[in-house]
Specification:
single chain, 171 residues, alpha/beta, Glutaredoxin, five-stranded mixed β-sheet, two-stranded antiparallel ribbon, TlpA family protein disulfide reductase, cytochrome c-type biogenesis
């Protein structure tokens, strides 16, 4: 009698573990996150402020970078070209320059060097937007669809082909 009960308990326990693992994976990969959940307001490098949720209804590419990042320098011209190509279709590219180990002047130099025309916000250790988005590596690109849902996050430099493909997903 003890063996069937023990077997039943083990089977139920194993089933719960498997369910929890798969449910956890589904939750991490499939649950849409609304931009209002991860909303922020930051100062713009050009003056004034920007609030992410003000772009609800438009496709948004949120780009986290630092002025000292080599991959960010490589990716910047592609991002600017994509912004120029798709802004008439409503695309918003919003740069978030993190100056935790740098300066605002270095951020200004980065923007000038790459002739960036899309808005660039300033994140600091005090505002901590990079933490809200779990940015541990730059470039870190977050793609929001028109409904404000995150449809893709990439924590690396994107090739031109990847950037085009991912932008088509949100346009």
């Amino acid at each position: 009698m003890k063996k069937p009960v023990l077997f039943l308990l083990l089977a139920v326990g194993a089933g719960c573990v498997v369910f929890a693992l798969f449910a956890g994976c589904q939750l991490l990969s499939g649950t849409p996150v609304d931009m209002r959940v991860k909303d922020f307001t930051l100062p713009l490098l050009s003056g004034g402020t920007v609030r992410l949720s003000s772009y609800l209804g438009q496709p948004v590419l949120l780009v986290f970078f630092t002025p000292s990042c080599g991959h960010c320098h490589s990716e910047a011209p592609r991002l600017e070209a994509a912004y120029e190509k798709y802004r008439d279709q409503g695309l918003v590219v919003l740069g978030v320059g993190y100056i935790g180990g740098s300066t605002e002047e270095a951020l200004r130099s980065f923007v000038a060097e790459h002739n960036l025309t899309y808005p660039v916000a300033i994140d600091t250790p005090e505002t901590k937007v990079v933490r809200r988005y779990n940015v541990s590596w730059v470039p870190h690109n977050v793609f929001f669809n028109r409904q404000g849902r995150i449809v893709r996050e990439e924590r690396r430099e994107l090739s031109p082909e990847e950037l085009e493909e991912y932008l088509r997903e949100i346009l």
